[in-house]
Amino acid sequence: MSPAVFSHGDLRLYLLSLLGEAPQHGYGIIQALTDRTGGTYTPSAGTIYPRLAKLEEEGLVTKTVDGRTTIYSITDAGRAELESRQGDLAGIEEGLADSVRLIANEVRQSVQEAMKSLRADLAAAARAEKAGASPRPSASAPSDERATSRENLHRADASINAFRARVRADLRTHVARGGVLPESVVADLENALDAAARAVTRAITP
Predict the structure, then answer these.
(1) Long-range pairs, 151-154, Cβ under 8 A, ≥24
(2) Which of 12, 27, 80, 130 has its CA 20 to 30 A from that of 46?
(3) What is the pLDDT of residue 3?
(4) Phi, psi of 105, rounded to the nearest 5 degrees
């Protein structure tokens, strides 16, 4: 979701909504916005603090300073405005939900594309191996083939580990940021991995 989801006045109202849940400091508000949008929108301090100051001027928010930390709280007037604009707030929430679904679809597509590429690479490697096979191997061929096989095994291990690390990091980051991980995405991943495993077995089976 781009910042455009928060059109004119939307971010102001959403800040009131967050403070309506509990008092919060500026960094906590920024983190909450990041979490609620699945990590696709992280506002800067230069975006949030001026809006909080404006809300304070309007009497909708108050702040208290505790050492180096400034805590913002919603006032009764702020709660009254929040109550009067529940319909607008519901529309904003729907936009956020749509953005999270979009992220889930992107994760699913990323997994499918990665597995499709892996299957194509495996098939190409198998074809190249068959095309390069000599019908009359020399005496040194078995030794050379074993050395090549060991090298290819290391390459395969590296590819598998890199894929695992990439997908795992993407999924963990997505969930840590408050994103939704649908069961369908996991099912697609399981099916793609199973298909890749079968492709490997077919490629190496005489």
Answers:
(1) 152/125
(2) 80
(3) 41
(4) -65, -40
b/e map 48-63, b = 16+ CB within 10 Å: bbebbeebeeeebbbe
Contacts of residue 114, defined as CB under 8 A and 6 or more positions apart, other chains included, come to 163, 166, 167
Task: State the CATH class of domain 3-84.
Answer: mainly alpha
CB 111 within 8 A of CB 57: no
What is the DSSP secondary-structure string of 149-177? HHHHHHHHHHHHHHHHHHHHHHHHHHHHT
- The string of pLDDT tens digits covering residues 68-106 is 889 999 999 999 999 999 888 888 888 777 766 676 676
